[in-house]
Structure formats: structure tokens, C-alpha cells
Design a protein that fits this description.
Blueprint lengths: L2 H19 L3 H16 L2 H5 L2 E3 L11 H9 L3 E7 L7 E6 L32 E4 L3 E3 L4 E2 L5 H6 L7 E4 L5 E2 L13 E3 L4 E3 L4
Parallel strand pairs: 1-2, 1-4, 4-7, 5-8, 7-9
Antiparallel strand pairs: 2-3, 5-6, 9-10
This protein binds the ligand Nc1nc2c(c(=O)[nH]1)N(C=O)[C@@H](CNc1ccc(C(=O)N[C@@H](CCC(=O)O)C(=O)O)cc1)CN2 and adenosine-5'-triphosphate.
Length: 199
């Protein structure tokens, strides 16, 4: 990645993380409920048997109650797992309850790779993937924490299965894009559902 692109991305991360960190817990809960209301209206969600959520940390869109609701609807829930924080390769693993994913390194909740029976689910068997982000643009580009874990994992996932979850202020007109950035096909915020055309 060019130095210019890297510094532009760094600025975006800084700016949008500051915005997101300004949210208080009550507003985050209210907005996340609004986002889930939007998700439930998606026919792709209704039809999905297996959905990939992430377990929110920091000031990300809150997903715990969404995951519990998905269990209640009989869906299979998978979440990202980083087995090794050196190569940072991501896997999708099935959980049966939120408690399967205890607090892990760097504040990210994920299953304990030593104590839990790790059940890796193939990408082809996942119907819908919700991705977190620091910022999204109206063409579906996403800026994350800058590890590239999601971009690497999403490489072979069909565009229409990838859905970004964001507070409305995280959606901007245009983000700097790198060669590996994988766009989302839908962005769900508490105010709107943005459908993106594939380029
Ligand atoms: N909720 C949620 N879960 C997620 C992500 C996310 O953005 N949100 N990820 C999105 O990618 C992945 C987590 N990726 C991560 C990879 C590394 C570090 C991390 O803090 N690494 C250390 C460096 C390790 C070291 O010192 O060797 C660091 O930066 O300090 C954090 C998250 C998968 N799970
Ligand atoms: N498919 C890939 N193959 C090789 N390198 C990649 C791939 N995807 C991303 N990277 C590299 O990972 C680093 C971080 O990428 P980027 O800035 O796009 O992360 P991000 O989208 O902000 O974060 P994340 O995907 O973790 O949420 C960059 O150096 C990028 O070149």
C-alpha cells in the first residue's frame, strides 16, 4: 500500500474513531436497536440459515442482542476467530451461546481456542456476513482498524452476502480505497438501508 494511501487511511480511522467514541452507551443501544430493525426487514436476513456476526467491542454497533435474537429465530451464528495474533488469519466459527466467546486478548471476545470445541464453518455455508467498520462510503467501501483481517477473509465471499453495520454518522461520501478493499453490498444504519450496486 502506498505511503499516501496509508496516511489518508490513518486520518480517517482517527477521525471516525473519535466520532464513534463520543457516543454514550444509551445512544449506542438505541441506535443499535434501530439498526437491527433494519436488518430484520432484509429478505436476505429472513432467509439466512447461517449468519456471521461479530462480537462488538469498543464503540462498535452493539450485536449481543442481535445474536441472541438470531438464536431465538433458529439461525446458526458464526463469529470471527483469530487463532494467532501474529499472522492474524481470520476463521469463522460457530457459537451456540454468547458465553462460548469469552474475553480474549486485546479486548476482542472470541472462543478460547484451547478450551472450546472449535467448529470452523466454511464460507460457502454462510448465507450472510455482517461486518463492523470505522467508516463506510456510499459506494460500499469500508475502513476498519487497519489489520486487513476482514479484507483477507472476505476475498472469496460473494458481494451480495456482505453487509456493513454502522451508525449513520459513520457513512461518508468517499473513502480512500486500497487494492484489497472488499466492498459491502448493503449498509444498515439506524436511519437507512443503503443498497449498493456492484461495480
Ligand atoms: N468486534 C470485532 N471483532 C473482530 C474484528 C473487529 O474489527 N471487530 N476484527 C477485525 O479485523 C478481527 C480482530 N482482529 C484483530 C487483530 C489484531 C488486534 C490487535 O490488537 N493486535 C495487536 C498486535 C498484536 C501484537 O502485538 O503482536 C495490536 O495491534 O496491539 C486486534 C484485532 C476479528 N474480530
Ligand atoms: N487480500 C489481501 N492480501 C494481502 N494483503 C492484504 C489483503 N487485504 C488487506 N491486506 C493488507 O492489510 C493491511 C490493512 O488493510 P486495510 O487498511 O484495508 O485494513 P482495514 O480494512 O482498515 O481493516 P480490517 O479489514 O481489519 O477491518 C494493508 O497493508 C493491506 O494491504
Amino acid at each position: 500500500m502506498s505511503g499516501y494511501l496509508e496516511s489518508e487511511k490513518r486520518k480517517i480511522r482517527h477521525e471516525f474513531l473519535a466520532l464513534r467514541n463520543r457516543m454514550d452507551a444509551d445512544s449506542a443501544a438505541v441506535c443499535s436497536a434501530g439498526i437491527f430493525a433494519g436488518i430484520k426487514k432484509l429478505s436476505a436476513y429472513e432467509k439466512a440459515k447461517t449468519v456471521m456476526f461479530y462480537l462488538s467491542y469498543d464503540s462498535e454497533v452493539v450485536t449481543d442482542f442481535m445474536i441472541n435474537s438470531a438464536f431465538g429465530s433458529g439461525k446458526i451464528v458464526v463469529i470471527p476467530l483469530i487463532k494467532n495474533f501474529i499472522d492474524e488469519e481470520m476463521y469463522a466459527v460457530k457459537i451456540s451461546r454468547l458465553e462460548d466467546a469469552c474475553l480474549s486478548v486485546y479486548g476482542i471476545r472470541q472462543p478460547d481456542i484451547n478450551s472450546v470445541n472449535i467448529n470452523i464453518v466454511e464460507k460457502d455455508n454462510i448465507d450472510l456476513v455482517f461486518v463492523p467498520g470505522l467508516a463506510f462510503d456510499i459506494k460500499g467501501h469500508r475502513t476498519g482498524y487497519g489489520k486487513g483481517c476482514y479484507d483477507r477473509w472476505l476475498k472469496s465471499v460473494p458481494f451480495e452476502k456482505i453487509v456493513g453495520l454502522a451508525y449513520d454518522f459513520q457513512v461518508t461520501k468517499q473513502l480512500p480505497i486500497g487494492e484489497y478493499d472488499i466492498p459491502v453490498s448493503i449498509i444498515v444504519t439506524e436511519k437507512r438501508v443503503i443498497q449498493i450496486k456492484e461495480n
